[in-house]
Amino acid sequence: MAETFKKFNFDSVWVGIVAGILLPIGGFYINYLIHFNGMHLHRVFMSIKRGQMEFPLYTFCLLPSLCMFFIFLWINKEKASRGILITVLAYAIFMVWKFATE
User: Fold this and answer.
1) Which of 20, 23, 46, 56 has an alpha carbon 20 to 30 Å from 72's alpha carbon atom?
2) CB-based contact 80:72 (threshold 8 Å)
3) Three-state SS across the chain?
4) Would residue 81 count as lying in a domain?
5) Residue 2 has what pLDDT?
6) For the residues 74-91, what does the mean pLDDT come to?
């Protein structure tokens, strides 16, 4: 099993895309545990919408992805950092579109 793990190439765009998708979900979960522990998700989204907290929450959720982007750059995994950058840009375009249409 260790041999298989060593053969896996972490310097792939797909590794970066998967990490870029999963890390904001983890960031939202951490924010949920800190601020909204015990509430149902529907009520959390309604309170976020009412309190105008959407933009700060979305940017907070992107922080783990940006940290992983810089870590991948630091350890010379440029293709993986490119995948994270693709997802962060997709999230940013979505946020600009969402808040421009409101």
Assistant:
1) 56
2) yes
3) CHHHHHHCCCCCHHHHHHHHHHHHHHHHHHHHHHHCCCCCHHHHHHHHHHCCCHHHHHHHHHHHHHHHHHHHHHCCCHHHHHHHHHHHHHHHHHHHHHHHCC
4) yes
5) 59
6) 92
> How many domains does the structure of the chain reveal?
1
Q: Which tokens is 7 given?
A: 């053969």
Task: Report d(CA 35, CA 82) in Å as an integer.
Answer: 32
Choice between 56 and 65, residue whose per-residue pLDDT is larger: 65
Structural domain contains residue 78: yes
Amino acid at 62: L
Amino acid, single-letter form, for residue 24: P
Is 1 part of a structural domain of the chain? no
pLDDT of residue 16: 92
Q: Residue 6: its pLDDT value, please? A: 66
